[in-house]
Amino acid sequence: MRRSIAGGKRRRGPLLRGIVFDFDLTLVDSAGGICANLNALAAEKKLRRLQLAEVRRTIGWALADAMRSFWGDGPIEEEWLPRYRSFFEERNYAGVVPFPETVPALEKLRSRGALLGIATNRLTPLGIVRAAGLDTLCPIIVGIEGFSPKPDPAIVLEALWRMGLKAAEGVYVGDTDIDMKTAVNAGVTSVGVTTGNHGASALKESGASHVIEDLSELPELWEEIR
What we know:
By secondary structure, this protein is an alpha/beta fold. The protein has helices at about 30-45, 50-60, 65-70, 75-90, 100-110, 125-130, 155-165, 175-185, 200-205, 220-225; strands spanning about 5, 20, 30, 95-100, 115-120, 140, 170-175, 190-195, 210. The chain has two domains: about 5-30 and about 95-225, Rossmann fold, CATH 3.40.50; about 30-90. About 40% of the residues lie in helices and about 15% in strands. The two termini are about 20 Å apart.
């Protein structure tokens, strides 16, 4: 896929030094695992069973909002969220697999001097990132515990702060309109990737400066824009 670069011009400004990634459907295909664990919760709580397609459409939302869209109001914070997370932990985060391009791309970026991290709407993402084998490649990992969820920019800015970087030195890579709006709100360079629910046009309309088909294109783009 040809990259879409806003204005077709090389970026001007401080040297880019760090890349922060969304997690689900950006670095990993997690749709199957999320759906399986939501349906385990549904079976236990006698809620409606979900289809993979409807679950996939909500990936990237705050999980409480996704549950509310599926099942309406209920004891979400008190019961559903903790039980869902315990299902994932009990199953060692099965069904969450890096895309084939993920590890090679991250290794190339690190070899070219990029600092790498993850900022996700998951509450406490370290366990699932570690289970996916990405914690050493992306050692800065920030979830929404203590922060507002995206599109609030706090978690992206926190990840960059832990890298010792300012917003102007950072890139945020994600697969949803929420991710692109987050990048705009944070004042960082935005890169959309079409491995999730949004195509190139939707990502650009939401603020993406650059769009790639998958992460295999990111190392070359990094060299062009930094």
